[in-house]
From TrEMBL, chains A, B:
GO terms for molecular function: hydrolase activity. Its EC number is 3.6.5.-. Pfam families: MeaB. This is Methylmalonyl Co-A mutase-associated GTPase MeaB. CDD domains: MMAA-like.
Length: 362, 362
């Protein structure tokens, strides 16, 4: 039994089912190609990842992202082998609607972190990327400085049909990045749809990026994103924008007080910064550090990670139960019949469900 | 196979597993007792319900609410028999936080409807009632006039462990009420938690009851309840409150415009009323009638009901798939083991899910 059906007809070549990552430079591309030719075993990959080898890390994430069943099994082996070396990190989710300057912010923030001696991995959850082939983090030139940084690793969003699948792959990639020695994991997502909730369930800290006067304040409240935020950072606080950003800070601070207190005991902070002038970037990290001091001290950090692990186990099970049912050969045509009967009020929804379930379990 | 595990050890008596409804009066109680002694068959119940017999209706709803497996089968038979006579109604959901005067409003509104010749059934979805034994609609004396009305039927919320179970029972009770000739079904729910979403998925029209200056405006937005509302009715617009209520009306009207347009093509209306003086109650019905004219004309009404039926079929299936898995003898202890292993980072959540699923499907 496996969690995903391979779409590839042939399982002979490991190339099948893999979206090739963009090469960073010709030299690196050659290294990757050489490494690939060697067809490293799961054990080789694990050994190299633990040593901090970014090429092996890239290669293993590619295995995770593959829809080829052979790759899936190998990927699971690699994850299991990396697991004892994972978990020593802080995981930060960053969201914001298009236009708030997420890429520029992550570049400035990431560079600040590597200047403090940290190793930074940037991953993304973007379910729309299966259509647009990576609308976020896809254009790596937007993070030119960070890409070149020895202590940074940037990976675009996995593609996939469902948010669940994309999120699972990212969640697994976190483990590999941590085993590879990355101590600060940044998960980027776009401020649309349900992807924030998925990211929220895999990070320790959630950062909402905003700009002053965008008029999307109410939308943030509506979708509950503001309620999830541990900090709101108002970006583009430079030049003529500074006074507007300060005003927005006051407004968001007031709005945040209307939400119930957080279980972590943390009071969400609002701050301003400019990813261009770098003004305020250090304050963002100061806020995040303060949060981790508090949450590790009161055990919330540790407890939340345990809860998240259980959540992902249950989510995976619940998703798979549905996949198995709705793709079962005995169910597919029976489901269509019953859907029609329910539509025409010939049978109650509950009686129809009962018939389908009885056929499934018999 | 059955949809719920009976908690009763003996299935010998039909009294087991049934929460006895409060008797409306001693005379009615005696009638019910006599009727119960007769142990009517499913066919008898169907025949009597279709004739408009409220005692048979009560009795059948009690069967639906029972956790006794014998009752469940009989209940399903009754529902199936009533189905061809159901569906000729309008279903109105009413929500509002405690203190907005839901009971008084529903009494005044219900009396207005019966005065127009309508037959009104009032049901409730209140998952908290399993603890408090009916915090809403439980105290029937609060609807004294409507209870005595020949053309009204009032039933407190079913109790149950889960919102899903309570909601399903109410959803089934709607079918019986409709078969019994009730053309206007009101579903009451409290303005807390997820019960609004459940009610929204079983009604044609959603009414949000408010009072002026309660300070819960933002909370309504936060939970998306305001977004679900087809009308906001500001109650207690009497005496000194009238000007405050008018002000609130303007504010809510402005807030509603910030939400995206409804698929029904309907523009949500805000109105004021007093359940005490009856002022404005007829306007509420006018708004609802206008909505139904529009939604039936543009087929939204019919399409939404079909969608809702399918939704309930799928929901029932998805819930049952989980119930079956998590209660499976092979899974229970294995799940505990894997939960612990996941907590201690000995296994990834995904590998643990895989082990559990392999054991389940083998």
């Amino acid at each position: 039994m496996h969690l995903e059906t391979p779409e590839n007809k042939s399982a002979l070549s490991e190339i099948n089912g893999i979206n090739q990552p963009d090469s960073i430079s010709d030299a690196v591309a050659k290294q990757i190609q050489q490494f690939r030719r060697k067809q490293p075993s799961a054990n080789e990959l694990i050994t190299r990842i633990i040593k901090g080898d970014k090429i092996a890390l890239s290669r293993a994430i590619t295995l995770i992202e593959s829809t080829n069943i052979k790759h899936l099994e190998k990927a699971n082996e690699v994850i299991q082998g990396c697991l004892p070396y994972a978990n020593n990190s802080v995981r930060i989710g960053i969201t914001g609607v298009p236009g708030v300057g997420k890429s520029t912010f992550i570049e400035a923030f990431g560079k600040h972190l590597t200047s403090l001696g940290k190793k930074v991995a940037v991953l993304a959850v973007d379910p729309s990327s299966s259509i647009s082939h990576g609308s976020i983090l896809g254009d790596k030139t937007r993070m030119e400085e960070l890409v070149k940084d020895e202590n940074a690793f940037i990976r675009p969003s996995a593609s996939g049909d469902s948010l669940g699948g994309v999120a699972r792959k990212t969640r697994e990639a976190i483990i590999l990045c941590e085993a590879c020695g990355f101590d600060t994991i940044i998960i980027e997502t776009v401020g649309v749809g349900q992807s924030e909730t998925a990211v929220h369930s895999m990070v320790d800290f959630f950062l909402l990026l905003k700009i002053a006067g965008a008029g999307d304040e109410l939308q943030g409240i509506k979708r509950g994103i503001m309620e999830m935020a541990d900090t709101i950072v108002i970006n583009k606080a430079d030049g003529d924008n500074i006074s507007k950003a300060k005003l927005a800070k006051t407004e968001f601070n007031r709005a945040l007080h209307l939400f119930p207190a957080k279980k972590s005991g943390w009071i969400p902070k609002v701050t301003t910064c400019s990813a261009i002038t770098k003004e305020g970037i250090n304050d963002v990290w100061k806020i995040i550090s303060d949060y981790f001091d508090l949450a590790k001290e009161n055990q919330y950090f540790q407890n939340k990670r345990q809860e998240q692990n259980q959540f992902w186990m249950m989510e995976t099970i619940n998703e798979q139960l549905k996949t198995h049912f709705y793709n079962h050969p005995d169910i597919i045509s029976l489901l269509e019949q019953n859907k029609k009967a329910v539509q025409n009020n010939e049978i109650s929804p509950f009686a129809a469900a009962k018939i389908l379930l009885e056929n499934y379990y018999k």
